[in-house]
């Protein structure tokens, strides 16, 4: 039947069929849940009752007026700061391991291995590292005479930086591999010509390396920002938001609101605010990073 149709019609039909299934899956599992989430954010629903009382913008007013809800965003700042440092370290190691360093393949593998570990397993592993009484970190610091009873996960002033440092260890190798792939796409002739012209290493990095990997830097910053805003697994497993809520993140607050307090309407509004926040931050990031380059 299909063979009797004109070639142009066959081509359009086949393309349409190939596109239809992914589009259907996208609509079913992405756009429909997102629209339903927005609809639920205007209701007062306990997650079980068939009645969903329409309350308008009341949930959004609660999100922005209640410091216990919106205020937890400040706990995510530590992940963003450490993420920036992580990207700087990843660029440095990518440049070093892109050279003719002996054993560079072994070091690439060594730095990338943490990324393939399960997030929960990593959290439990560092639970022993940061343990106050028997942790390996305090033991090592004690041997060096730098103190041995620091409560890394029990001190509210720096618990988020402690947790963020675990993300640094786990994801730095992944970012390094992305930067390394970008560096290997830069023609070596550019560096040779720069050397002939008398450019030093800093000038090569500034005028050759950075412009050629700028889009990759933008991509990794995108991943850093979204990861910082949506972090969940590390504080959930290691501290459960403690001490006294000092490490509770916005995603944890959403889950507590929905599943512990059965306020799915407010949790939906918080999820929409988080989504809008991610879009806003990434839009500002893209604007400032591309300002003057277009």
UniProtKB/TrEMBL annotation:
Gene3D superfamilies per UniProt: MetI-like
Keywords in alphabetical order: Cell membrane, Membrane, Sugar transport, Transmembrane, Transmembrane helix, Transport
GO cellular component, one term: plasma membrane
Membrane topology: Multi-pass membrane protein
One GO process term, biological-process aspect: transmembrane transport
Lineage top rank: taxon: Bacteria
ABC transmembrane type-1 domain residues: 76-285
Transmembrane segments: 12-32, 77-97, 109-130, 150-169, 213-232, 264-284
Major localization class: membrane
UniProt cross-references to Pfam families, sorted A to Z: BPD_transp_1
InterPro entries: ABC_transporter_permease, MetI-like, MetI-like_sf
Subcellular location, record wording: Cell membrane
PANTHER family given in the database record: ABC TRANSPORTER PERMEASE PROTEIN, DIACETYLCHITOBIOSE UPTAKE SYSTEM PERMEASE PROTEIN NGCF
Protein family: Belongs to the binding-protein-dependent transport system permease family.
Protein name in the entry: Multiple sugar transport system permease protein
Organism: Paenibacillus catalpae
């Amino acid at each position: 039947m299909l063979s009797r149709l004109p070639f142009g019609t066959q081509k359009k039909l086949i393309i349409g069929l190939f596109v239809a299934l992914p589009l259907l899956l996208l609509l079913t599992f992405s756009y429909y849940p997102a629209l339903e989430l927005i609809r639920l954010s205007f209701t007062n629903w306990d997650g079980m009752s068939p009645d969903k009382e329409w309350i308008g913008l009341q949930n959004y007013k609660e999100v922005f007026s209640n410091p216990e809800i919106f205020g937890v965003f400040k706990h995510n700042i530590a992940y963003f700061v450490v993420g920036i440092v992580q990207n700087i370290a990843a660029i440095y190691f990518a440049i070093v391991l892109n050279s003719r360093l002996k054993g560079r393949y072994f070091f690439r593998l060594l730095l990338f291995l943490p990324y393939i570990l399960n997030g929960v397993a990593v959290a439990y592993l560092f639970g022993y590292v940061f343990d106050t009484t028997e942790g390996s970190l305090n033991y090592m610091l004690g041997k060096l005479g730098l103190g041995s009873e620091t409560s890394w996960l029990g001190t509210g002033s720096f618990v988020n930086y402690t947790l963020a440092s675990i993300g640094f260890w786990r994801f730095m190798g992944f970012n390094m591999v992305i930067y390394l792939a970008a560096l290997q796409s830069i023609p070596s002739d550019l560096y040779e010509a720069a050397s002939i012209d008398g450019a030093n290493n800093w000038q090569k990095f500034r005028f050759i390396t950075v412009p050629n990997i700028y889009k990759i830097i933008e991509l990794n910053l995108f991943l850093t920002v979204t990861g910082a805003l949506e972090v969940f697994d590390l504080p959930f497993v290691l501290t459960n938001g403690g001490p006294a809520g000092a490490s509770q993140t916005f995603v944890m607050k959403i889950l507590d609101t929905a599943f512990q307090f059965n306020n799915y309407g407010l949790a939906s509004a918080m999820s929409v605010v988080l989504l809008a926040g991610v879009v806003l931050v990434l839009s500002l990031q893209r604007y400032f990073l591309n300002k003057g380059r277009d």
